[in-house]
Amino acid sequence: MKSKRSPSPRGALSNYKTLIPYLYRYRFHYIAGFICLIVVDAAQVIIPLFLQQAIDIIVTGAFTVRTIIKPASVMVALMTVIGGGRFLWRYFIHGSARRIEAGMRAALFDHFLTLSYDFFQKNKIGDLISRSTNDLDAVRTAIGMGLVALVDGTIMAVSILAIIFVNDAHSAALAIIPLPLITLLILLFGNLVGRRFQKAQEAYSAMSGIVQETFAGIRVVKSFVKEWHFLRKFADTTDDYRAANMALVKLYGVFFPLIGFFSGLTSIILLLAGGIRVVQGVMTPGQLTALFRYFQMLIWPLMSAGFMVNLIQRGAVSLGRINEVMYTQPLIAAPPNPAQSEDPRAPLIEFRNLSFIYKEYEQYEKKDRGDGASQETVKNQCILENISISIEQGTRLGILGRTGSGKTTLVKTLMRMIEPPANTVLVKGVDVRDWDLKKLRGLFAVTPQDSYLFSDSIRRNIAYGFEDEQGADEPDRALSAKIEKAVSLSAIDNDLANFTDGLNTIIGERGLTLSGGQKQRVSISRAIIKGGEILILDDALSAVDAETEQKILLRLLETKPESASAQRLTVIIISHRVSTLCNADKVLVLDKGRIAEYGTPAELIAQNGFYAKTAALQQLEQRTVLPN
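The chain above was modelled as a monomer; its predicted structure follows.
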């Protein structure tokens, strides 16, 4: 897998540079939110001054209700401003953070869909889900409450320190002695949080992977009575996740009490120093009360510094995990300048000396060097070797071969599901690497070995192959007619009476409620309705009985493509059954990635090779009656 990693280590603050386009898009929302936040901070800083004024008036003993009402009214007005301002900055800042989260999630999902299938083979689905949910939530919190804590804490700390030094520099200088210790704690805390949160996120990904894997394979789990095994695996990952989070909790349990302790020291120092100056007449009781209020307010900026470091570090770690995916480039992508014309004289499909090796899955073998040690050498296994055949439009080609002979790999090169070497696979005279990827794959209707169905109705699963990019929720009349035709061709119509709601029956995740043959026929219907020029059936009838199989094949082989000028559909059938291939125009027999035989079914029978021997063996098996 070709990937471009983030230029900095995971968790580094430079990961935030990928958020610049999003922050720029909502810059006016953030500016408005920070203005409201500054207004709130200003109002909060002013209130103790009026509190000082009120207390000094009361201490004199010569005051009236009117003299108290004025500062009290101002404080009420300021608190009203604070309430309105808090609503507005939350609306602008948190709202923007939510919108950025939604935009990033959409971009991440879109990028997932561009990645080649090898990416999903190497990365667990649970981990990808964790990055799409848990990590994005941490990023959203960082650019929401994290930024608020940064701006709010900075403004409040600077404003409060300025005011208390103006009021009484001597007492303030003594009271802030513990602050450098708090700063050191914050720096240490930030580094520890980043590392421990990364471990917690990785543990969460592992736990999600176990859950996804267990539920996806619930049939196997239950049939082998392995519930205890997966319960133990889940318990182990849960313990790891708990331990990782407890490491964070322990860190918080030490950090925040220490912050509170050092903040309390400032109050004690202020009480001693300020009390002496009040007795000496240098300060008024109102000034001392205001200073106490300011130092209590200063606790929040100090706490918010640790809170901010926590959120920013968490966001950086999570953003680094997201960037790992976003920086990963697909192995297979559309060329920058796709071919614009086709060669009408060329065969529909042509393989030219195609050789293919799964480099991503190289096998290793150990060879003894004679001195007791061993070294690993790469053993490149050639999956396909020197394949050269042409397939004309309308041809019905069968492919036969032992397991692992390269049958599925061969058809995957046609649609660039895997990348063939240049100029070895051509469709309509154009190298598949030069085709627009969407246009190329639009030529094919495929029923793969794994008949994957979605947790939806049978109708929607079939219509999935026909829907446009908007995807109408309800099929129209034309689509209904196409569905009925596809259902008839695949012979699934015979089973509809057994379903509770017919085509509208919900079949469960991965077609859980259907038999293997029913899933294959629904998958064939989905391929038929797509309307491609080339139909590929990759062992798509293995779970269907022989009579139904022949019925489906005869109907499919007589089908004319709607979008092609050919008189009949081009069909490629991969199967282990010779009976499935007997109606093909040509049969390709593969053995260890090479062409072993190629010709009509009658010609291959006459050659008495692998095809003929397989046919004879399968006929013998059909006639054999096993004893009770």
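The CA atoms of residues 1 and 118 lie 7 Å apart.
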